[in-house]
Amino acid sequence: MSAPDFNLLVTLDAVLAEGSVARAAQRLRLSPSAMSRALARLRETIGDPLLVRAGRGLVPTPRALELREQVSRLVQDGEAVLRPAEKLNLKQLVRTFTLRTAEGFVENFGPDLIARIGKEAPGVRLRFVQKPNKDSAPLRDGTVDLETGVVADTTAPEVRAQALFRDRFIGVVRMGHSLSKGKITPLRYAAGRHIVVSRRGLDKGPIDEALEPFGLERKIVMIVGGFSTAVALARASDLIATVPERHTGNLRAGMHSFPLPVSTPEVTVSLLWHPRLDADLAHRWLRGHVRDICAAIR
Q1: Is the pTM of this model over 0.70?
Q2: Of 27-31, 253-257, 293-297, which range is least confident?
Q3: What is the helix (H) or strand (E) element at residue 72, kind and residue range?
Q4: Superfamily of the domain at 169-265
Q5: Any idea which fold 90-159+275-296 has?
């Protein structure tokens, strides 16, 4: 069996990305005839036409769609291996990093992170975007550089993850609330009026499961999409918010926080990124600062 021609991967990546033989030829700076010959070799090697005519244009075959992301990743990884490493000059670095984080992360960890980044690399800008779900597509397509969150079954298998800290859920109420004094029992906790945080609008979770053995059920009067909203509502009312402790430290300033009277599992918050950025020196530098900030704030 003859050795594979890995140059064909670059050609295949261009063809699948452009969806046009002519545009792929322009991208690779090849003549139309050379591109046609390369496509013929690809079709023979893979055993699939890859692009087929549909009206006046071309459409990818199912096999082409299946290969597109994998081939793109292989080519990017190959380019990263062959690219010479450059010494990072932070004072001259001009770059915008997009971070996708859960609500509360910016308020709690953002000030220290921005202070460090600004001191070392004044040309770097951080863009924080909301995290409506756990979809890994933004990391895959490069619209997000870094993400924080709990690794789930829906997290893409190729995504890199490094633990930042463990967090637990606690209760929080306004100062003067009846739960701000005395021992918090499962009965006292469940009897209050509760805010539930759920991006999907769910009204049940691990806390409710932990109350079941006591024969108790929370009275849920409001469901919101984020921790900031829950804390703000609890601050201005007699509602009880249940939120992650470390994620909401600054948000809870001036309020009464208490451990939950039932046992609930802790969660591990991780730093997530796509492997194509593993060797990127600026990205490594930013990852290091995020890790240090999260480790420093308790």
Answers
A1: no
A2: 293-297
A3: helix 62-82
A4: Periplasmic binding protein-like II (3.40.190.10)
A5: D-Maltodextrin-Binding Protein; domain 2 (3.40.190)
